Amino acid sequence: MPSRTKTVLIWIVTFFIMLIICMPGLWIILSAFRTNGEILTKPAIWIPQNLTLDNFRAIFGFGENVVGIPVASYFRNSLVISITSTALALLIGMTGGYAFARYSFPGKKPAFLWLMLSRTVPGIALSLPIFIIWSRLGIIDTKFGVILVFTAINVPFTVWLTEGFFRQVPNDLNEAAQIDGCTRWQAFWKIEFPLAKSGIASAGIFAFLTSWNEYALASQLTRSTDSKTLPVGLMDFTAQFTIDWAGMCAMAVIIIIPALILTFLVQKHLIAGLTFGGVKG
Amino acid sequence: MATVTLKDVVKRYGAVEVVHGINLDIAHNEFVVLVGPSGCGKSTTLRMIAGLEEISDGDILIGDQVVNQLPPRKRNISMVFQNYALYPHMTVSENLGFSLKIASRSKEEIEAAVQDAADILGLDELLERTPAELSGGQRQRVAMGRAIVRHPDVFLFDEPLSNLDAKLRTQMRVEIKKLHAKVKTTIVYVTHDQVEAMTLADRIVIMKDGHIVQIGTPLEVFERPVDTFVAGFIGSPPMNLIDGTIKNDTVVFSDGRSVPVPPDFSGKVVDGRRVVFGFRADVLMPKGHTLAESGVLHDLDLTIDLAEPLGSESILLSSFGGKDIQARMHNPRPVKGGEVLSCELHLEKCHLFDAETGQSLRG
């Protein structure tokens, strides 16, 4: 086969695979700008006839059809819960990861293994016990309760990811810093932390996205506008007899945008191999 | 006065003792090299001096101060690591000035000190580069620069040249020696390379299995090794060591050949004693290819197995007393395998060791 034909064929195959992967996302974005009627038409209209911003206007309370959903509150809840649980998970996970990478202590291996095994338990399996305990503690339907759960979900993965990055930073650097006059904490903060920065940033993105997108547990633990997150809020578009698909898609787009922006921003800092050259190379 | 004193220093990891109560006095401005095979405890000893390893027993003093409990930052020491341990996210200049920055010195002071170190080590053009942009030798120089900017009481070097190629190693060895002459500071240097130890040290400390075997100047340990371990470890090629038995003031070997007991040892051994006879390649030379030296000579005929020409000399491989041995030929001529050469052995430079303990019988 001539190489030109081969290239064209590869492009076509790649295009179709990409189309399949991107289709759901594209469909949501397209639907966010269409009317409910057009979305529900059978046979489906693939190419939108007229695009509209009405769905977004409705969500934010402008225009003729106002949706009675407190999106702003949900957005605020999501932001508070995701940012706080990410910060906590990073703080706990990073110090844990550092301890696992640098110190030896009794029970280190089993502890690490158990931490990882906790990831194998499906979150939803824990929802009932968490629900009962949280309701007894009186933290059901509070942001605090959700933050606690999301932090617990994120810590094991953060420990695992940062441990790997800290282990890549040669211990010699920490020792050199201590000899150069640093305390253990200064050596961590001035030398090891900047070098493991990319790993910590990745862990942060993962933790944030997990919290931002989580639906199953949040839907069990939240009830009111005080604590409901955006993904949970999506269900507000389903009424007894109708589903406002257009509104739901518009809100889904709103959910996607901050996550997308964050990923792009932090992506710059995900420079691998920063430690290269400090030691023998 | 930056002396370093080790008093009965012990290091244990759990139940395993790796350094067994060593004693060492290092004088002000002295260059001491700890040398020994892998696992002999030399690096652990250095790390204990640095404060990177806790000591299990005994005392370490820097100057008059016991530093057992002091963290590394309070010992006023600098260390050059085997892997250089340069901070990869900082430029050379930031690497050099890091310790002063931590000590909250003024910007001008830091700049002056960095410039000073850069001048001494020829790092001027590299100051704005990062470690990744440097060659091995340059990184090594930056690591040394980082050590000297603080004017520490003691320099510690942990096998600093072992990652460099042979040529660069020779070059850096000279630079370290020059550096010591310039900065005049107490240096404790760890290496497994006996050539480095011989060329750099004021005194060599030879370690084995967590014990100090011998302490002495390079010439002392070369000429008067206390046991067969030191005799085999120091010097290149290593000392020839042959098992034998004393009989009528001669050492008789397993193949029936014999040599007289060296003059330094006569009267110190009795008939029937099993010994190890030791001599360096330099003291066994073919006639006509020796250095003009007088002394107590013993004639030997050697069948040469192989000659290794090194230019100005050749190393001759042969067997004697049931062992493979090496002799040295100055102003060499081509030697064929199987050729028999008449050689001279300088008896006064030969050694006798106890066959059981390996200790020198010099007394």
From TrEMBL, chain A:
- Its domain of life reads Bacteria
Please give the PROSITE patterns that the UniProt record associates with this protein.
ABC_TM1
Q: Which residues form the ABC transmembrane type-1 domain?
A: 75-266
Keywords, comma-separated and alphabetical: Cell membrane, Membrane, Sugar transport, Transmembrane, Transmembrane helix, Transport
User: Record's Gene3D superfamilies?
Assistant: MetI-like (1.10.3720.10)
Q: Name one GO cellular component term.
A: plasma membrane
Q: Which GO terms describe its biological process?
A: transmembrane transport
Among SUPFAM superfamilies, the record links this protein to:
MetI-like
Q: What is the membrane topology here?
A: Multi-pass membrane protein
Q: Where are the transmembrane segments?
A: 7-30, 79-100, 112-134, 146-166, 245-266
Q: Where in the cell is it found?
A: Cell membrane
* Family affiliation: Belongs to the binding-protein-dependent transport system permease family. MalFG subfamily.
What does the UniProt function comment say about this protein? Part of the ABC transporter complex MalEFGK involved in maltose/maltodextrin import. Probably responsible for the translocation of the substrate across the membrane.
Q: What is this protein called?
A: Maltose/maltodextrin transport system permease protein MalG
Naturally occurring in which organism (per UniProt): Shimia gijangensis
UniProtKB/TrEMBL annotation, chain B:
* BP GO terms, sorted: carbohydrate transport
**Residue ranges of domain ABC transporter in the record:** 4-234
Note the superkingdom of the native organism.
Bacteria
Instruction: Identify the species of origin.
Output: Shimia gijangensis
* PANTHER family with a match to the protein in the record: MALTODEXTRIN IMPORT ATP-BINDING PROTEIN MSMX, OSMOPROTECTIVE COMPOUNDS UPTAKE ATP-BINDING PROTEIN GGTA
Similarity comment text for this entry: Belongs to the ABC transporter superfamily.
What InterPro entries does the record point to?
AAA+_ATPase (IPR003593), ABC_transporter-like_ATP-bd (IPR003439), ABC_transporter-like_CS (IPR017871), ABC_transpr_MalK-like (IPR015855), ABC_transpr_MalK/UgpC-like (IPR047641), Mo/tungstate-bd_C_term_dom (IPR008995), NA-bd_OB-fold (IPR012340), OB_MalK-like (IPR040582)
**What is the protein's given name?**
Carbohydrate ABC transporter ATP-binding protein, CUT1 family
Keywords in alphabetical order, please. Answer: ATP-binding, Nucleotide-binding, Transport
Entry's Gene Ontology molecular function annotations = ABC-type transporter activity; ATP binding; ATP hydrolysis activity
